[in-house]
Amino acid sequence: MPPMLVAISLDLGIPLSAAVQAAGAYFLAYGVMQPVWGVVSDRVGRVRTLRLTLLLAGLASIGSAFVATPLLLGISRAVAGGFFGAAYPSTLIYVGDTVPLGVRQPAIARLMVGVALGAALASAGAGLLADVTSWRLGFVATGGAALVLVVILRRLPEPEQPDGPRPTPLAMLGAVARSRVTLFVLALSFVEGMVLLGTLTVLPPASEAAGATSTLAGLLTGVYGVSVYLSSRMVRTVSMRRHPAWLLGGGSLVLVVSMLLLALSQGPFAAAGAALLVGVAWVSMHSTLQTWATEVLPGARATVISLFAGALFAGSALTAALVAAPAEAGRYDLIFLAGAAIAVPLGVAATWGRWRWRNPSPGQRAAGTSDD
Predict the structure, then answer these.
(1) Cβ atoms of residues 251 and 280 within 8 Å
(2) How many CA atoms lie within 13 A of 58 on its CB side?
(3) Any idea which UniProt keywords this protein has (predicted)?
(4) For residue 86, what are the contacts with CB-CB under 8 A and spacing of at least 6?
(5) CB 146 within 8 A of CB 57
């Protein structure tokens, strides 16, 4: 949606801030509903939850193409985001259920590559459609792809679930609330969403304000996906040889540099360079935080992962709400400077916390608790 924000505002005759707020409604619903879908997937199965929500999300996304007012746009995007919100935690929990701990971070890094390449393709395609035809076709294409996935995922097997009675959702939430390290990781995810995902939301309209077309803005954002793909091998190598804190520290440093670059200029070359750096930061930081989230409270993994993903996109939604007015005024330099200021304590806290943390003992794993 970000590469189409300017086109949407022009076509509907609304301020850019209103289009940004519609994107924020999508991200907010996407984030808020993820813990709900985590609980649902525990009860009815990962794959079944994924297929049902993709069906409803696809229909809602197609419906977004036919709105004529900013209110209906915000509502339709929120509905689509709420159902699409099941995809991220269900997929990540599936990896946690089926991939051994020793090779889980490389597997999650590969998953992030797929997500990033999909985002790059969608970003470039959305910008091209907004320029050549209509932004409405972007929503139709997204919805159609979701419906195709509903059919394809029929072949995906459900992961095996442990025998015996399952803890209630309230018991799982109680375990999370009692684990200080889990709450710490969730807070890091929220702030990461503010900076990393918030940047990807603001970057296309910022580059368009600097003179880029919608197509070029989409392609510039697509550089991020290429960067994730190219840097993932490096991150997998480092993750096997170094402590995860190295990836968090290095990734946060790269993130700060990208924010400062965008604060200086939002022109095509600066935007492409920043997108390249954000891709490196995403693979380094996010895959490490995600792997950490699968480890901190093994007995409540599905709940933790859902809350982690929800916090990530809730942070992104907050950024969309906070930057709507500055973006309308064209003050993108202040937006990215604020991002750099937030990225510094994020990197310090994440690096320090991961360096101090140690895996739970076998007894704690069985009990669903962790060291704090």
Answers:
(1) yes
(2) 16
(3) Cell membrane, Membrane, Transmembrane, Transmembrane helix
(4) 33, 34, 37, 40, 41, 49, 50, 53, 54, 57
(5) yes
Q: pLDDT tens digits for 122-156?
A: 777 877 887 788 889 989 999 999 999 999 999 88
3-state secondary structure (DSSP) of residue 99: coil
HSE-CB of 20 using CA atoms within 13 angstroms: 26
Does the pLDDT of residue 354 top 60, yes or no?
Answer: yes
Q: Could you count the other beta carbons within 10 Å of the beta carbon of residue 118?
A: 12
* 3-state SS track over 286-304: HHHHHHHHHHCCHHHHHHH
Does residue 134 sit in helix, strand or coil?
A: coil
Q: CA 277, 332, 205, 75: dihedral to nearest 10 degrees?
A: 110
The three-state secondary structure class of 15 is coil
Summarised one tens digit per residue, pLDDT across range 217-273 is 778 777 888 888 888 778 777 877 888 899 999 999 999 999 999 999 988 889 999
* Cβ 97 vs Cβ 280: under 8 Å: no
Tokens, residue 303: 């709940």
CA separation for the pair 306, 53 (Å, rounded) = 15
Q: With the C-alpha atoms ordered 228, 229, 231, 235, is the resulting torsion angle positive or negative?
A: positive
d(Cα 341, Cα 119) in Å, to the nearest integer?
26
Are 135 and 126 in contact by the 8 Å Cβ rule? The answer is yes
CA 77/CA 26 separation, integer angstroms: 5
Task: Return all residues near 110 (Cβ < 8 A) that are at least 6 apart.
Answer: 232, 236
Residue among 239, 220, 293, 253 at smallest CA distance from 110 = 239
Number of CB atoms found within 10 A of residue 293's CB? 26
Other beta carbons within 10 angstroms of residue 212's beta carbon come to 23
Please determine, for residue 368, whether its predicted confidence score (pLDDT) is greater than 60.
Answer: no
DSSP string for 199-250: HHHHHHHHHHHTT--HHHHHHHHHHHHHHHHHHHHHHHHHHHHS-HHHHHHH
Domains of the chain in sequence order: 2-156+169-354 (1.20.1250.20)
Helices 301-328 and 16-32 pack at an angle, to 10 degrees, of 170
